[in-house]
Specification:
- The structure holds three protein chains of three kinds.
- Chain A is an alpha/beta fold.
- Chain A folds into four domains: 3-122, Ubiquitin-like (UB roll); 142-214, Alpha-Beta Plaits, CATH 3.30.70.20; 232-276 and 339-410, Rossmann fold (3-Layer(aba) Sandwich), CATH 3.40.50.1780; 281-337 and 423-577, Fe-only Hydrogenase (Larger Subunit), Chain L, domain 3 (3-Layer(aba) Sandwich), CATH 3.40.950.10.
- Chain A has 18 helices and 22 strands.
- In chain A, strand 1 (3-8) and strand 2 (11-16) form a beta hairpin.
- The radius of gyration of chain A is 25 Å and the shape is globular.
- The mean pLDDT of chain A is 94.
- Chain B has five domains: 6-113, Glutaredoxin (3-Layer(aba) Sandwich); 131-163 and 171-340, Rossmann fold, CATH 3.40.50.11540; 353-384 and 391-427, Ubiquitin-like (UB roll); 439-526, Up-down Bundle (de novo design (two linked rop proteins)); 540-596, Alpha-Beta Plaits (2-Layer Sandwich), CATH 3.30.70.20.
- Helices cover 39% and strands 14% of the residues of chain B.
- A five-stranded mixed sheet of chain B has the order 12-11-15-13-14. Chain B has a four-stranded mixed sheet with strand order 2-1-3-4, with helices on one face. A four-stranded parallel sheet of chain B has the order 9-8-7-10, sandwiched between helices.
- The radius of gyration of chain B is 27 Å and the shape is globular.
- The mean pLDDT of chain B is 92.
- By secondary structure, chain C is α+β, with helices and mostly antiparallel strands.
- Chain C folds into two domains: 2-66; 80-156, Glutaredoxin, CATH 3.40.30.
- In chain C, a hairpin with a 2-residue loop joins strand 3 and strand 4.
- The chains are: A alpha/beta, B alpha/beta, C alpha+beta.
- The B-C interface holds B 14-15, 17-19, 51-55, 197-203, 206-207, 238-240, 276-282, 293-299, 314, 355, 357-359, 363-364, 395, 398, 429, 431, 433, 437, 445-446, 452, 455 and C 25-31, 33-34, 64-65, 68-72, 86-89, 91-93, 124-133, 135, 142-144.
Chain lengths: 587, 597, 160
């Protein structure tokens, strides 16, 4: 690799050819401020439209200032990053951006984690040069069940557009209009609900301001908790415990399962349960379904739908309902763990507690925004009463804890309640890419072969590669497995199947990077792949530490079937734990 | 053209067609037929003569008689008198504005005397829809010569030696551009002709395409040969239907003659051209935007490098030149680089086409050697200022350019001098302004254009230009302060310094150059609340001259806001605070008693 | 306005034929939009949706392109579309006053359509007929050297 030598603020730097000034400066220990730029290393995606012009620097011999994020270093280049000219330009441009941005920081849900706010502080903006009657660009606001769009706060960094199109290939968003009124929006500025949006929320995760924010359900939860007539129970998704600590300044990858349970109890939830329990239940249903289809296939049934596709990721479900309408009978009919939990809670558990359905409030804590949309789907309601009432994100839970003056770090570790708090290691790994399929393999293998697994860890299914493939030996029968995370990779995998390039028996798909651990409801990772990696490791640590690691061995699951459901895929199970899919309007 | 004794050349450009030139052609033909002159005289529809002010033009060759502002009903007389009897129709001849004498021969018209037509060499001489006429004037001889005797590198060297610089705005050396594109190897390369002429007030590209489309086709093929591209694309404004039609006809004819397509002139070189339509976005004049637009995307620019020569259309090496640049190319090969580089100044060779417009007597399209002075252009070719008013400024370079004043009149015009004077060549719009034009309003007009045309991708251009425009509006409304002037300057400089593409990097030029040259005018707006040119409505002060006022009350009745009071048959008064400066009283007053300041 | 447009089978066929004639190549989107606008007079939502699904581009992207270029419109024009040139040459020769006169005669804003759908008023960039400044186009017809007081008579030419 050819080397380039240059000086930045009189420091000599040597970099590879092709390196940008911004990265070279970083190497020299100089942090040039950026706004629109975002490097998502784990996705191999760099958003650098060169639009905000905050990162400009002076390059000797160049007429105008150069955007450091997108200007490559050249041999002998002399760069200055903080001359008066540069500082004046940055400040003036930032003032311009602020002049077209609502000054409502105090009540903005992104306050405190807003890149624009941070930058204004850093640059010491104390007033914005007032132009009398300066126009501000305003747009139609949109509140979907999962996320809010307030494009008055958009600064045209285009990160959401990049994520939605280049990473997720969803195509709900695009730059629209021209000039002062240009903004990122769905077609015709329609509501996201009318667009092909999957509510994966990855746009929210990268938005540098408060333009895209999660729909806030915390007030509804607080109100339910305060209502003496209601029994309020909560379920926590596997990925939450691996990230919640970050909101309280703990190292990424710190497992806070026990403290989280304690905090939820302190907040006033009547029962604290684990979605992992429902994940085990999912494996029972989905694994049985897989085995059923496999057995038919091996018996020579040509009509059987293979590969089976996992269905626990709600953004993925939305994605195929929009894009693969010809394949609606291919995914597993098993509901997601969140919804299985809700269905069991509002029947089996409600009966057990002798609580009426409408007096039982089920709250879920999820790393996800699409879950908010999922729990509002009509098919998951009985007479208008949803199986899961409210879904809050990891970040929302952190806010609830902070608002309740709970000293999170000082909390003791507590255990989940029973019966729906008991889970296995298989349930835990639902939180990472490859986890669902590994959990399914652990159970399906034993049920199919009737033999005990020698080795529970399927390393070949693990990793952070976007698309992974492995073949598992089911006692002589090779089972081909495909895994994809992020919807763009899912599309590649599915198109490969359509074109006959791949031949799989089962496929796991997660919409977010790394699986649920990188969900849009998690603490923001700002593209730092080390954070994703740390959460990833934490999940497998939790799995390894569990006494039971196979779903079908969860004693409360066994009991649930004995007392209530009968057997997997029974009529009752079918009614409560399975669903069907709808063709969403054409894109 | 040899078989006829006389040719009647009628301008079929957009301007003249708008004044019934098609009707004129029809009438001339009818009359020729009526008099049985079909074998002696032929009517030819040509491209633009350039002298749009006096259109429609009918020119008779070989005697170069130049009839101006011809009406359809004049045709009978022209044919009977001139063609049949050999007597010129004096009343239709051009009248010299100074001597008031009729000029019989276009060569003696001030408008043409100082011009040197290279890019426009065929405009107004040939029928653009007939390839034979182009060939008869040495068309496709340049490419034949290259195929016969030059390697691509030699052909590039010739352009480098000629000193030709891009005529689209930036003035980048054309030969060097070709060389860079030629050195980037790829399985496919592209030649793009930028015909998305966007500067308001510039129409040379349209005129060339309407008047001489083959010169552009030939040059694109030459460029393709030089850089190793087999595909050419013309990105043309959809608002130019006539140019599109003529270009399509020309491409079809060139294919039929084997001048486009496979194995052109048995050279073994393949080249063909397709059209891509613009859809109304000024920013698409910027190379990278243009390329994105051709790819079916929003015309947003991207950071350079990579330059199109490296990664352009569909990611392949692409060379983009504008229409006028291409139109120069064939001549350079025919007459030689040494001939070409003797024309012009040290660093700006050849000629430049300007669209002369505004408050000038001879509006039109002119082509002059680089190095000519503004004075020559405005007062000799342009025939001076309309209605005997005083020259105030000339705006060059369109919305990216600046205003030049009295003190620049004797500066030789070339790329570098214009930039040094705070303006730029741009695509060659030249708008002349007189004492009635307010320079703050002019800056505001251009910023309004920029705000509308900014793509919105980068913050300084998207928001900064909007703010510049708002401040200028404020000043024109009489609410500006001296602080505003300071902020205008700083903001302008930052926008230039930080914008992503050429649009934002030049859009504050009209502000900076008017601030530089007409600071007093800005000051009088903000300090005295006065618009010297009297064009800012809000700064007009309406008063009643009591000596002249008869107290007829007509103004009182006309005033929509009740700002005028007074007894009948007594002098009235206007309450300046209530007055909305609509001018209704001024229009109604029969005694010129309303004074406007 | 666009909601009043109901897409019909024949429209869909027209759109598909246009897309097919450009091989459904996303790179030809702008040419396709030109053709479709030529066909329908404007580009209502349903037309954009149909183009998007046929060419396998997201509707958001199609709308992103339509809303970027000033040539494309989502509202139908009047039967007689009036365009006043606002190029610099026309501007300095008083085009603004001409626009104002059209606005007041028709009681519409720039970009608007009269209630009876007869006239629409727009400004456009230089048409290159600067010798005739200020220039007004009504449909295909060009009016040169227009002065505000002539506006009334010009409009009267279009009395049905």
């Amino acid at each position: 690799m050819e080397k380039i030598n240059l000086t930045i603020d009189n420091i000599n730097v040597e970099v590879d050819k092709g390196t940008t000034i911004y990265k070279a400066a970083k190497k020299a220990g100089i942090d040039i401020p950026v706004l629109c730029y975002l490097n998502l290393e784990h996705l191999n995606i760099e958003n650098r439209p060169g639009g905000c012009r905050i990162c400009v620097v002076e390059v000797e011999g160049r007429k105008n200032l150069a955007p450091s994020c997108s200007t490559e270093c050249t041999q002998g280049m002399v760069v200055k990053t903080h001359t008066l000219r540069v500082l004046n330009a940055r400040k003036t441009v930032l003032e311009l951006i602020l002049s077209d941005h609502p000054a409502a920081c105090l009540t903005c849900s992104s306050s405190g984690q807003c890149d624009l706010q941070d930058l204004s502080q850093k640059m010491g903006i104390r007033e914005i040069h007032a132009v009398e009657n300066a126009k501000v660009s305003t747009y139609r606001k949109d509140a979907s069940p999962a996320l809010n769009r307030d494009m008055d706060k958009c600064i045209m960094c285009r990160r959401c557009e990049t994520i939605c199109n280049d990473v997720q290939t969803v195509g709900a968003l695009s730059g629209i209009n021209r000039g002062f009124m240009s903004v990122v929006a769905p077609a015709f500025e329609q509501d996201l609900e009318d667009s092909p949006c999957t509510f994966c929320g990855q746009c929210v995760a990268v938005c540098p301001t408060g333009a895209l924010t999660p729909f806030d359900d915390t007030n509804r939860v607080i109100r339910a908790l305060a209502d003496p007539k209601k029994t309020v129970i909560v379920q926590t998704a596997p990925a939450v415990r691996a990230a919640l600590g970050e909101e309280f300044g703990m190292e990424p990858g710190t497992l806070v399962t026990g403290k989280m349970v304690a905090a939820l109890r302190t907040l006033g939830f009547d029962k604290v349960f684990d979605t992992d329990f429902a994940a085990d239940l999912t494996i029972m249903e989905e694994g049985t379904e897989l085995l059923g289809r496999l057995t038919k296939f091996l018996a020579g049934d040509k009509d059987v739908k293979l590969p089976i596709l996992t269905s626990c990721c709600p953004a993925w479900v939305n994605f195929f309902e929009h894009n693969y309408t010809d394949m609606l009978d291919v995914p597993s009919t098993a509901r997601s763990p969140q919804q299985m939990f809700g269905a069991i809670a509002k029947t089996y558990f409600a009966d057990m507690m002798k609580v009426k359905r409408e007096d039982l409030v089920v709250v879920s804590v999820m790393p996800c925004l699409a879950k908010k949309y999922e729990c509002e789907r009509d098919e998951f309601k009985v007479d208008g009463n949803p199986d899961v009432d409210y879904s809050i994100s990891t970040r929302e839970l952190a806010r609830l804890i902070k608002a309740a003056n709970i000293n999170f770090k000082a909390l003791p570790d507590e255990d989940y309640d029973n019966p729906m708090g008991e889970s296995t290691g298989a349930g835990v790994i639902f939180g990472v890419t490859g986890g669902v399929i590994e959990a399914a393999v652990r159970t399906a293998y034993e049920l199919h072969t009737g033999k005990k697994l020698q080795k529970i860890d399927f390393e070949e299914l693990r990793g952070l590669e976007g698309i992974r493939m492995a073949t598992i030996d089911f006692d002589g029968i090779p089972i081909n497995i495909g895994i994809a995370h992020q919807l763009g990779n899912a599309r590649k995998l599915l198109d490969g199947i359509r074109s006959g390039m791949y031949n799989f028996h089962a496929i796991e798909i997660m919409a977010c990077p790394g699986g649920c651990i990188g969900g849009a409801g998690q603490p923001l990772h700002h593209g730092d792949s080390n954070i994703i990696r740390a959460r990833f490791d934490a999940i497998y640590r939790e799995d390894a530490g569990k006494p039971i690691r196979k779903s079908h061995e969860n004693p409360y699951i066994v009991k649930l079937y004995e007392e209530f459901l009968g057997h997997p895929m029974s009529e009752k199970a079918h009614h409560l734990l399975h669903t069907h899919y709808f063709e969403k309007h054409k894109i | 053209m040899a078989q006829y004794k006389m040719h009647l050349l009628v301008c079929g450009g957009t301007g003249c067609r708008a004044s019934q030139s098609e009707e004129i052609i029809k009438n001339l033909n009818t009359e020729i037929k009526n008099l049985g002159l079909e074998n002696d005289a032929q009517v030819v529809t040509t491209g633009c003569f350039g002298f749009c002010e006096k259109g429609p033009i009918v020119k008779i060759v070989p005697d170069n008689t130049f009839y101006t502002q011809v009406k359809p009903e004049d045709c009978e007389e022209i044919v009977r008198e001139h063609i049949l009897k050999g007597r010129k129709v004096t009343r239709l001849l051009y009248e010299d504005p100074e001597t008031h004498k009729h000029v019989e021969d276009s060569k003696h018209m001030g408008f043409y005397q100082k011009q040197l037509r290279i890019a426009l060499r065929n405009c107004g001489f040939i029928d653009p829809e007939n390839i034979d006429e182009y060939i008869a004037r040495d068309g496709y001889a340049a490419i034949a010569k290259i195929f016969e005797s030059m390697t691509p590198q030699q052909a590039i060297d010739e352009i480098k030696k000629s000193g030709l610089r891009g005529r689209g705005g930036g003035g980048f050396p054309t030969g060097l551009k070709w060389e860079i594109a030629s050195k980037n190897s790829a399985d496919q390369k592209y030649v793009v002709c930028n015909a998305d002429e966007g500067d308001p007030g510039a129409f040379m590209d349209r005129s060339i395409l309407e008047g001489d489309p083959h010169s552009v086709i030939e040059a694109m093929a030459i460029c393709g040969y030089c850089i190793g591209a087999t595909k050419g694309l013309v990105y043309i404004r959809a608002e130019y239907p006539l140019a599109i039609k003529r270009l399509q006809t020309a491409i079809k004819q060139a294919r039929e003659y084997g001048l486009l397509g496979n194995d052109i002139m048995d050279s073994g070189f393949d080249f063909d051209i397709e059209l891509k339509y613009g859809a109304g976005a000024f920013v698409c004049g910027e190379e990278t935007s243009l390329i994105h637009s051709m790819e079916g995307l929003r015309g947003e620019p991207t950071v350079k490098p990579p330059f199109p020569a490296e990664k352009g259309y569909k990611g392949k090496p692409t060379n983009v030149n504008n229409v006028e640049t291409f139109a120069n190319v064939p001549v350079i090969y025919l007459k030689g680089a040494d001939w070409y580089n003797k024309i012009g100044t040290e660093k700006s060779k050849g000629t430049k086409v300007f669209a002369l417009a505004g408050k000038i007597n001879n509006v039109g399209l002119i082509e002059v050697p680089m190095g000519i002075t503004l004075r020559e252009v405005i007062f000799e070719i342009g025939g001076g200022i309309k209605n005997g008013k005083k020259f105030k400024a000339v705006q060059t370079g369109g919305p990216s350019g600046g205003c030049l004043t009295e003190k620049h009149l004797d500066t030789p015009i070339d790329f570098d001098n214009l930039i040094a004077s705070g303006s730029m060549m741009g695509s060659g719009g030249m708008i002349v302004m007189d004492e009635d034009d307010c320079m703050v309003s002019m800056a505001k007009f251009y910023l309004e254009f920029t705000v509308e045309e900014s793509c919105g991708k980068c913050a300084p251009c998207r928001i900064g230009n909007k703010r510049l425009h708002e401040i200028l509006e404020k000043i024109c409304a009489g609410k500006g302060t001296e602080d505003d002037l300071e902020y205008l300057e700083n903001l302008s400089k930052v926008i230039k310094d930080t914008s992503l593409c050429g649009l934002g990097q030049t859009s504050p030029n009209p502000v900076l150059s008017t601030l530089e040259n007409f600071y007093d005018e800005y000051l009088s707006h903000v300090k005295e609340r006065r618009c010297i040119a009297g064009s800012c409505k809000a700064l007009k002060l309406y008063t009643i001259i009591s000596d002249k006022c008869t107290g007829c009350t007509a103004c009182t009745r006309a005033c929509p806001v009740g700002a005028i009071t007074g007894e009948k048959r007594q002098p009235h008064v206007i309450d300046a605070d209530k007055c909305i400066r609509c001018g209704a009283c001024y229009d109604k007053c029969k005694f010129t008693a309303i004074h406007v300041q | 306005m666009s909601t009043t447009f109901k897409i019909q089978e024949s429209h869909i066929k027209t759109i598909h034929d246009i897309c097919d004639s450009f091989n459904n190549d996303p790179g030809e989107l702008i040419n396709v939009l030109h053709k479709c606008q030529g066909e329908f007079g404007y580009l209502p939502e349903d037309v954009q949706r149909e183009i998007a699904s046929k060419m396998k581009i997201s509707v958001a992207k199609v709308y992103g392109v339509v809303s970027f270029y000033s040539f494309f419109t989502m509202t139908p024009k009047g039967r007689h579309a009036i365009s006043v040139c606002m190029g610099t040459a026309c501007y300095v020769r008083g085009a603004e006053k001409v626009v104002d006169e059209f606005k007041s005669q028709l009681s519409i804003k720039v970009g608007g359509v009269t209630e009876d759908g007869k006239f629409s008023l727009d400004c456009l960039r230089c048409v290159g007929a600067c010798g005739l400044a200020p220039v007004v186009l009504i449909g295909e017809k060009v009016y040169g050297r227009v002065e505000p007081h002539q506006v009334k008579d010009i409009l009267a030419e279009y009395n049905d």
